[in-house]
Amino acid sequence: MEKFILAIDQGTTSSRAILFNKRGEKVAMAQRELPLLYPHHGWVEADPTQIWITVVDVINEVMINGDVRWDNIDSIGLTNQRETTIIWDKKTGRPIYNAIVWQSRQSAEICESFANSKEFIHARTGLLINPYFSASKIRFILDNVEGAQAKAEKGELLFGTIDTWIIYKLTNGKFHLTDTTNASRTMLFNIHTLKWDKELLDLFNIPAAILPKVKSCSDDYGTAAYFGRNVHIYGVAGDQQAALFGHNCFKAGECKNTYGTGCFMLMNTGDKPVMSRNGLLTTIAFDYGGKVYYALEGSIFIGGAAIQWLRDGLKAIKAAPESDVVASQVKNSDGVYFVPAFVGLGTPYWDDEVRGAMFGITRATTKAHIVRATLEAIAYQSKDVFDVMEKESKIHIKSLQVDGGATGSDILMQFQSDILQIDIKKPVCLETTALGAAYFAGLKSGFWKDVNDVKCTHSYKASYSPKMSPKEALKKVEGWKIAVQAATAFKLKD
Ligand code: ADP
User: Fold this and answer.
1) Which of 66, 304, 341, 379 can bridge 406 by disulfide, Cβ–Cβ 3.0-4.6 Å?
2) 381 and 303 in contact (C-beta within 8 Å)?
3) How many Å lie between the centroid of ligand 1 and the Cα of residue 196?
């Protein structure tokens, strides 16, 4: 009887379930959209019950789509949007507040009150104080739900990121667990000792009793008793880390970039954390086979979203794939630079106030130049992150693995290779996040013997090598730097 790994990928706007066979091929998939809630300006929440319902739905559907029974499932791998925070009642299992989504800014004021502890927090967690991470979200719920702090202190509440919540539901409330990658995004986890940090808990006044037990990415997380009594959850990792593993970036210096709405670049830095001074995050890459690997992470807020803006805002294209068709009408952007800082700039600038700008426009500029400049802007922003990563890790990156919707653009991928002057490799299976979770599960169960066995399932669909001379690439990047400087200088007074 053929066996499959069931991978669950619970993302910000949708939940997905995918069945993978031994060759690492996707044999069936199901997806459900997840509505987000915006109770106030800048707040982003989701209903934890809805999240669970979408997961139940996609599991049922993928089993039907794949025409498989629970006997066919070797084990489950779970990956999830990170940092999103849920607190529920230990006795009833009912959430006491909505899930606060990673994007939400509702705990910004709380973060400001901890600004003095910036260095201390960074040294222990590798993170920058920001509402993005779970600690201030937990504080928000305990402050704003009546009686919550007292209940938490009595051990009557449980906290979890999405992985923890889904494990809890899948196991019928039997297990309260998380993995090291998800724990490393809470701002309460010491990435050196690999334990919840007592002093951080004291700082945020968060009772240790609400925290889940932390396990490695390839470990026993109980059985999915809600569905198949004998099916084990054997793999758990946060989405970006799962993608790094899915790309087979097992060794120090191996690096991936995901070109989605935003872009996330992660580099495996081996068994030692590299503490950044230039706005990169230090985080756990994965914890597998008794070894912990660390990663540097850089984020770009507007990646594929710039293409969405061309489509919805500028109406320059009808659909995202048309960007390549239009951009290919010209050989280059003819000196046009676009800095898509719609919501500020992330790594390495961390400027919340800068806004988008376009430079170098002449009478000869056409829609095609602007579309091309938009694709190039995604590559330039990635180049900025890439440079900081190489500098801080002191590791020369030899090639970059890529995934995400915007890798559909050949022009973007070729230009990325040109300005980085390295090879870009796109795998056959672009569901690298779900595949990474499946790998963790399959390595625990013996579905795959070891990472060499996993490597046999990995192959590339396309690769791009530099066609531009190093001199020309340098000149283009210099132009980008001037454009960013100019955009940053432009700030209107209130
Ligand atoms: P997310 O997981 O963040 O929702 P996806 O990986 O699904 O993102 O990628 C969606 C993004 O990719 C969108 O912002 C879209 O504009 C962009 N995109 C999709 N296809 C293409 C394409 N062929 N060329 C350029 N951009 C694309």
Assistant:
1) 304
2) yes
3) 36
Cα(239) to ligand 1 centroid in Å equals 16
Amino acid in position 123: A
**Contact at 8 Å (CB) between 224 and 400?**
no
**Tokens 């595949």 identify what position?**
435
User: How far, in Å, CA of 286 to CA of 268, rounded?
Assistant: 9
- Which tokens sit at 288? 């597998």
Nearest Cα to 117, choosing from 132, 140, 135?
135
pLDDT at residue 330 tops 80: yes
pLDDT band at 132 (very low <50, low <70, confident <90, very high): confident
Nearest CA to ligand 1 atom 27: 406
**Predicted structure pTM score:** 0.91
Q: State the distance from the centre of ligand 1 to the C-alpha of 483, rounded, in angstroms.
A: 25
CA 274 to chain centroid, in Å, comes to 19
Q: Please, what is the average pLDDT of the chain? A: 94
Ligand 1 shell residues, CB under 6 Å: 260-261, 304-305, 307-308, 320-321, 323, 404-406, 408-409
Gap between the Cα atoms of 83 and 61, Å rounded: 27
Q: What is the pLDDT of residues 285-327, one digit of tens each?
A: 999 889 999 999 998 888 998 999 999 999 999 999 999 999 9
Characterize the bridge pairing of strands 73-80 and 4-10: parallel
Q: Which of 72, 71, 57, 74 is nearest to 17 (CA)?
A: 57
pLDDT digits (tens, 9 = 90+) for 86-102: 999 999 999 999 999 98
| E strand residue ranges, 310-394 | 337-339, 357-359
Residue with token string 């001074």: 277
At residue 409's C-alpha, the angle toward residues 405 and 414, to 5°, is 125
Distance CA 258, CA 360 (A): 29
Indicate which residue's Cα is closest to atom 1 of ligand 1.
260
Q: Which residues pair with 403 in a beta bridge?
A: 258
Confidence of residue 376 (pLDDT cuts 50, 70, 90): very high
Atom 18, ligand 1: which residue's CA is nearest? 406
Pairing status of strand 291-300 against strand 460-464: unpaired
Phi-psi region of 114 (alpha: psi -120 to 50; beta: other; left: phi over 0): alpha
pLDDT (0 to 100) of residue 277: 87
Q: What local confidence, expressed as pLDDT, does residue 229 receive?
A: 76
d(CA 285, CA 243): 10
Q: Estimate to the nearest angstrom the gap between the alpha carbon of 282 and the chain centroid.
A: 14
Domain borders along the chain are: 4-239
Query: Of all protein residues, whose CA lies closest to atom 26 belonging to ligand 1?
Result: 406
Question: Measured in angstroms, how far is the CA atom of residue 431 from the centroid of ligand 1?
Answer: 13
Buried-exposed string 434-457: b where 16+ CB fall within 10 A, e elsewhere: bbbbbbbbbbbbebbeeeeebeeb
